[in-house]
Amino acid sequence: MEPALGGLVTLLLAASPALASSPRTFSANIPAQTVRGALLDLAVQARVSLGGDVASCTGASPRLTGSMRLDTALTRVLADSNCVYQIRPDGAVIIRRAARPAAPPPAPPAPAPRPPAPVTALSPTLSDVIVTATRSSESPQTAPTALTAFTGQQIIESGAVGASDLSALVAGMTVTNLGSGRNKILLRGMSDGAFTGQTQSTVGLYLNRVPLTYSAPDPDLKLIDINRVEVVRGPQGVLYGTGPIGGVLRIVPQAPDTEKRLLSLSAGYADTRGGDPSGETAIVGNLPLLDGRGAVRLVAYEEETGGYIDDEALNLRRVNNGRRSGGRLSYSFDLTPEWNLSGGGVGQQIKTEDTHYIYRTVNGARRENLVREPHENIFSMGYARLVGNGDWGRLEATAARVSHSFVSRYDASSGLKFFGSNGRIGALDDHRDIDLNVLDIAYSSPRGQRLRWLTGLFWSDTVIENNVDLTALWPTQYAVYDEHRQDWQSEFAGFAQATYDLTDDLSLIFGGRYYVVDYETASMVRQGKDERPFDGKGRTSGFSPKLALSWRPDDNWSFYGQISQGHRAGGFNTAGPITEQFASAVVRPLRAYGGDSLWNYEFGAKGVMQDGRIQMRAALFYADWRNLQSDQFLPSGLSYTVNVGDGANTGLEIEANWRPIESLEIRTNALLAHPRVTRSYDLFNSKGNSGLPGVPAVSTNINVSWRRPMSDRMDLIADGSVAYVGPSRLTFDAEKRHKMGDYVTARASIGVETGHWRASAYVTNPFNTSANTFAFGDPFRLPEALTTTPLRPRTIGVTMTWTTN
User: Fold this and answer.
1) pLDDT in tens, 293-311
2) Which residues form the signal peptide (predicted)?
């Protein structure tokens, strides 16, 4: 990879103008439509944030195609709209109503008023990143759903490099702290348990339109060169199919730019109290091709994360070092003014030398394991995307192949006795390979009509191969237990959604998805000379509906109410000692577990106040979860899936953004929820007063971004965040020994930025809080409840980025 990377760097450096700046240009393909719709499409295609009085713009916009400057495009879109624009220094576009010309005095006659011009005075108005999670360009401030989005710039300012960092920015987002490449993401307090096994993830993770996981942990793709991240809460069964009953987290990388050459180099260094140092390097390059009709973009990165936990039994220090390396290569070509072909590949590898839990009974960041617990996570993806956009509507088709492999080792010494072994030291190796093929096709009708609709087809084919090996290591080494399991699953679905304007300010949204899921499992368990084979097949089909009302009484406020449903398919249990009966007794797995479903009832309000300086969003929801699936562990330490009962969650989400002055923005959000088990099944020892595992009833955070010009070419920047995570428990049984959470964490940074340089210093966990973020070590220690996962100790670091374009 290095020779190719070096050649691209040389080419980009030779082609890049030195310290030159030019008016921003982009490749436009905006159909003729309403001005509001054209502004939303422009924001997506030009990759800019949009804010202000967008809804007050009237009239129609002409069709725009080809390469053009941003200011030229805005002038043409707003020509007959009674609106004007402002491009702020941070690149955001602010739309304002044009001032009415003053009435001429009686004499002498006043000259005719001049046409509206771009706004020149700076305004502390907030801007919005325009999102496409709902398959149309929308602002989170007006979309009739609970939707949060962050720009790439906001992600950089917050210091977020992975999904776990986003939890400090999103209300109700919880990430288990097992380690990079091992974590599970939960949204809105909808938790099926803190462990990852055979069940489909309740949160759909997407890169553009491609799902990243099925029954797998978050691959933890590094958030570098990102255009935006979109988080949609609640069941997304209509547009995203079975699985995401808690919501969708969608990562949208920067697309190849057909207008600008770019080279960006970055590096960072950090020191953790009581731990090894950390470091990172990255490169981003963009090269236009074919006279502006195409482009390629490259991202490559590598980082080392220093360990801070000592293992006294093995006499090793700082055992939990880690490394993450990877990259993306993407392309984009305009086939015609209306059609674009894009695609590329993604690859990433994570290696951690050990887990980072410690024992409650040992002081400091120490533990006493008998076996090291390394983890490796390898992710790759290739995709192609065809988009057509014209006065006839929009067609988008995506085909992709995802490969995801991960292997984990656990100290299984305490679990050998369940398999009749006399060994004193043992290890469990869990190796899983997932291959996923996806095809997604959707057509959207033209904008600007009273009835707007979309329809599409989805197909996926998943093959999962799982090998579990339990080995005695001392005093003699021999195989104790192993299982080779293969799962096949195919899903085919047709979906449609429509929006009908009942009046100018009241719209009805309705849609549904019909799906058919076929699944099959083949397993062979071996223990000593005994074998236990199994083959099983199943099919699930159904319909996921959605119904919503959206009301916009004026340009500043909008309200919505919606009902939606999501489903997950069932499956089979196969793991366990050779004597496992798969009976219907408590804490015994059934051979087959059933699917589950979740109904969500929600009311939301969104408003803009103080002339656009304050944005407010609130959502009140009730979720009814039937036949809840959960991954759990047998006394032997092997995993199984069980329907634990019925659950429910009632909650209130609140978000507020405030820009009191142009240089300062404050963002805050909170979730107040009551997740619970409403009816327990006899097959599982769940308790209604335990809540749902791993999710707190209360969480809140506040983020502050400040920027002040120091000179014509340099800005002083500062950012800070404080987050509170409420108490929760690891399991369904309400045991106090599994308690975790109830802590505050923070981050602060300060730096300078010019047109080509950005340098900053930061500190995380400044008060060196040693809270328990995750009360789980490995499946063989779960009954003991003696493990705790601390926050990373106070870390001080610096980052620097150089960009030429």
Assistant:
1) 999 999 999 999 999 999 9
2) 1-20
**Rounded distance, CA 467 to CA 625, Å?**
32
Task: Quickly tell me which residue has 């192609």 as its tokens.
Answer: 384
DSSP state of 4: H
Convert the pLDDT of each residue in 730-751 to its tens digit.
Answer: 888 766 678 899 999 999 999 9
**Crossing angle of helices 70-77 and 35-46, rounded to 10°:** 170
Beta bridge partners of 307: none
- Cβ atoms of 627 and 138 within 8 Å: the answer is no
Nearest residue to 115 (alpha-carbon basis) of 76, 169, 163, 171 = 76
pLDDT of residue 48: 86
DSSP string, 167-223: TTTSTTEEE--S-TTT--EEETT--S-S--SSSPPSEEEEETTEE--SSS-------
Of 313, 311, 258, nearest to 289 by C-alpha is 258
CATH topology of domain 247-804: Maltoporin; Chain A (2.40.170)
Q: Return the beta strands (E) in 307-391 as ranges.
A: 310-311, 322-334, 339-352, 358-359, 366-367, 375-390
How confident is residue 101, by pLDDT bands cut at 50, 70 and 90?
low
Peptide bond into 235 cis (omega under 30): no
Of 3.55.50.30, 3.40.190.10, 3.30.420.40, 3.40.50.720, the CATH number of 1-101+117-123 is 3.55.50.30
